Amino acid sequence: AVVSDVKTNVRIDQVSPTLKIEEKTFKATRMFLAEDNFFRVFSAKMIKGDPQTALSELNSIVISETIARKYFGEADPMGKSIEIRHIGPYTVTGIFEDLPENTHFKYEILASFVSTEMSVGTEELLTNWSENNFYTYIKFSENGLPAQLEDQLNDFIDRHNSSKDASDPAKLSGRKVSEGSRLHLQKISDIHLRSHLSSELEPNGDIRTVYIYSSVAFFILLIASINFINLSTARSTKRAREVAMRKVTGASRGQLISQFLIESLSYTLLALILAIVTVDLILPLFNNFISRELSFNEGGGISTTLILIIIGLLVGILSGIYPAFYLSKFQPIRVLRSQSLPGKSSTPLRNILVITQFAISITLIISIGTIDRQLKYIQTKDTGFNRENILVLSARGSISQNLETFKERLLAFPGIKGISSSRLIPSNDLVNMSGAKTLDGEHPGPLPFRLPLVSIDYDYFENLGIKLLAGRNFSREFATDDSASFILSAMTVRQLNWGEPAQAIDRPFSYDGTTGTIIGVVDDINFETLHNPISPILYRILPSQNYQLCIRIDEREMTATIDFIKSIYKEYAPESIFNYTFLDDAYTNNYRAEFQMGKIMILFSVLAIIIACLFLSRLMLQRKEL
Q1: Fewer CB within 10 Å: N-end or C-end of the chain?
Q2: How many Å apart are CA 446 and CA 510, to the nearest integer?
Q3: Please, which pLDDT band fits residue 233 given cuts at 50, 70 and 90?
Q4: Are 352 and 606 in contact (CB under 8 A)?
């Protein structure tokens, strides 16, 4: 092997074509191209078909049991045809079990990778060493060291690139990995909670969120335990005579401590059983509240049960140990003579616990306020572009081939105020590219930072309300604007140390082998999420790459306009499904985790405050009884 300790590897590519099964047409949402050794890397269980050969033939496809049941009913899908629009028929060669929810890679349909027309269109992209469209998974031997393997991979690419013709712009032109992109290995188990890379297969979680939820749960449990301790010691007046009588009849202090600990553990056990039943009953409502599909038994089994039992025992012992020692120390003579009955006054520890309890509650209330302000900031932040009333529509196939005519048809409707096309829309992940060079100034040559490319059309900036700071916009009146002209973001100019935006105009510039001139500088926008700093961006006119339309709609005619867009869409793509979203929704969806956290924190904080207030109300009632 070129790299030691590598057992096998597989490349995959995410695609979303329109599929047709008999008379049913639908848009694939979890479909991937995969190489034939896919099932040697991933352990999905095949129900039908041979995992070793299911993806080895041209135009072969494997599907999940849910897809099989949904579109084939009770019929056997094996050997049946699934037509992929603009590509042709594929034959079902396997059916695999549905994947669990707790995976970063949720696939329902896998098509043979050798059928490259659907994904890349040319063989060149499969052999181009600078191409990064694909996800690569590598399976190592158990003795493989990730850091060592990572170095071996990068050394191998360095050796390969050093032999390439430097005049070939399609290759890395002999550049070492250290001068371009360095490969980094990442454990699969780290992806969901610890990866913050762009273009992930699924929206990731965040380990910090897990820590926050765990901390809140711990503090709620702490408040409940403090309540139990305080109530137990506050009830000592009623139990003092019981303790005295048991001591008189021969009970030792150890027996009394055991009795009170058993009582505490019994309460905890009953509470644990009640909690499990409650969780099982309210989980569907909770899932609807946070828009997730959580399962109490997911990934559970014996380990989850054991953890719950251990937590229950710890809570029971820790909550009961102080009341047990406190109650068992009463002197029978003093109690029976009613001299200074315990429980009528607060102890220092009880006061400390009460203060701790309410300090936690106040902290949670402050946290709610902070999160609420953050969520309002997300919703009201000026991102540098207009995202209101912008309908986003995919323009592939026959629509992309007749894009200008399609746009003209739509613009004839009075409810449509503007249309632009682009490869990416704000809220998408930017793709970091290398290959940009400055051709004048003090330090001409490759840029010292990564510069993402956003391909757009002539109407992009005006339609999205992105402000021009210097120079001019792209224009059809200039013949070279679609081939040798660039527009930079203000951040790019700053990182190049070119001074004011106007000083960048008319400078020669090269990107990915294309030499041209900078004709304009636009204002910075939060293209990605607010989690990331504003990125430098290069804009170019590349109509062939633009398959997303941003259609600006008059909100007063929203329904009629959408109906009109659908009618025109169906004229050009009668077999395609009319799927659309709004730019504002796409933007907000990037902060789904934050909005969910806000909901959960409010719920938890209210619960903590209720628990804290229960102690106060019980204590006040008890004092009235005394």
Answers
A1: N
A2: 9
A3: confident
A4: no
Same domain, 422 and 503: yes
Pair (86, 115) in one structural domain: yes
- φ/ψ bin of 226: left (φ > 0), alpha (ψ from -120 to 50), beta (otherwise): alpha
Mark 500-521 as b/e (b = at least 16 C-beta within 10 Å): ebeebbebbbbbeeeebbbbbb
* Cα 452-393-521 angle, rounded to 5 deg: 35
Query: Phi then psi for 7, rounded to 5 degrees?
Result: -85, -45
Which residue do the tokens 């509650």 mark?
Answer: 361
d(C-alpha 163, C-alpha 249), whole Å:
95
The string of DSSP letters for 260-287 reads: HHHHHHHHHHHHHHHHHHHHHHHHHHHH
**Residues 178, 192 contacting (CB under 8 angstroms):** no
Sign of CA dihedral 292, 293, 298, 299: negative
Match 């204590």 to its residue by tokens. Answer: 619
Query: What SS3 state is found at 383?
Result: coil
The answer to whether residues 17 and 131 belong to one domain is yes
Using pLDDT thresholds of 50, 70 and 90, give the confidence band for residue 604: confident
State the residue range of the domain holding 92. 6-192
In 3D, which of 343, 357, 350 has the Cα closest to residue 234?
343
Query: Which of 114-118, 450-454, 484-488 has the least mean pLDDT?
Result: 114-118
Q: What's the average model confidence in pLDDT over 115-140?
A: 68
Q: Which of 192, 224, 243 lies at the terminal end of a domain, its last residue? A: 192
Q: Which two tokens stand for residue 33?
A: 């191209």
Q: Return the closest-CA partner of residue 225 out of 612, 610, 604.
A: 612
Q: How far apart are CA 582 and CA 85, in angstroms?
A: 25
Residues comprising the chain, all counted: 626
Q: Which one, of 66, 44, 40, lies nearest residue 53 by Cα?
A: 40
If asked whether residues 462 and 518 sit together in one domain, one would say yes
CA distance 59 to 65: 20
Residues 523 and 612 reside in one and the same domain: no
Residue 260 domain-assigned (yes or no):
yes
Nearest to 416 by CA among 609, 298, 556, 522: 556
Calculate the alpha carbon distances from 431 to 133, 454, 481 in Å. Answer: 10, 9, 22
Per-residue pLDDT of 474-514, as tens digits, reads 999 999 998 899 999 999 999 999 999 999 999 999 988 88
Q: Find how far residue 190's CA is from the centre of its chain.
A: 13
Q: How far apart are CA 384 and CA 208, in angstroms?
A: 29
Q: Which residues contact 312 (CB under 8 A, 6 or more apart)?
A: 265, 268, 269, 271, 272
The C-alpha atoms of residue 467 and residue 40 are separated, in whole angstroms, by: 51
Specify the number of domains making up the chain: 3
